[in-house]
Amino acid sequence: MRSGLPRPLFKWTAATWHDPTMQVAVAFDHRGVSLRDAVMEALAGHDVLDLGTHDPTVRVDYPDKAQQVGDAIRAGKATRGIIVCGSGAGAAIAACKIAGIRAAICHDLYSAHQAVEHDDMNVLCLGSEIVGASVACELVGVFLAAQFDGGERYVARLEKVAKMEREMRDG
After folding, report:
1. Catalytically annotated residue among 18, 54, 113, 118
2. Closest to 18 in 3D by CA, of 37, 49, 42, 51
3. Element of type H or E holding 45
């Protein structure tokens, strides 16, 4: 019999997400740079490919950063990516246009791990105007700690997504 208490959705500790072998591409547009220090701190201990930007006064467009992160993953220079823009929405839209990239906006802990576990999300998109530094660090940690479940139904769904990508590419 189930008690009235909710079960924990995800258990993690700082030790679970400091995997020095995981390569992570990270990029910020000019609005996302306000979370840069927090995200970079959360990535300590990982092999980080820093794709900038560092200066909030110079306009840097999120599609360019999404392309850089997507290219790094497709080229095998990174396993996962993180893109930070003002809302996270633009970065996710742009990143999802790249074949093989499964990006999502995650501003809550459940989505940050569930999207990896069930959907094999490989790019986390955050909005600097939506979450603060502390939450951003937790989201990065949960995203990096999560692993794809590999269950039959999840694989079947990913095959459907891959088919959609092929159909878009091939016309």
Report:
1. 118
2. 42
3. none
Is there a contact between 87 and 98 (Cβ–Cβ < 8 Å)? no
Active site residue 85: yes
Q: Which segments of the chain does DSSP mark as H helices, in order?
A: 36-42, 62-74, 89-95, 109-119, 133-145, 152-170
Q: Residue 93's closest CA among 83, 103, 84, 85?
A: 103
CA dihedral 77, 85, 159, 71 (to 10 degrees): -30
Distance CA 47, CA 20 (A): 6
pTM recorded for the entire structure: 0.88
- The single-letter code of the amino acid at 79 is T
In sequence order, the β-bridge partners of residue 127 are 85
Tokens of 80: 């996962």
DSSP helix/strand/coil, 52: coil
Query: What is the pLDDT averaged over residues 100-124?
Result: 97
- Res. 19: pLDDT tops 80: no
- Unique residue bearing structure tokens 């998109």: 125
Which of the residues 30, 46, 85, 106 is marked catalytic? Answer: 85
Q: Given this model, what pLDDT does residue 171 score?
A: 81
Active-site annotation holds for 113: no
Query: Across residues 97-110, what is the average pLDDT?
Result: 96
Instruction: Look at residue 11 and tell me whether its pLDDT is greater than 80.
Output: no
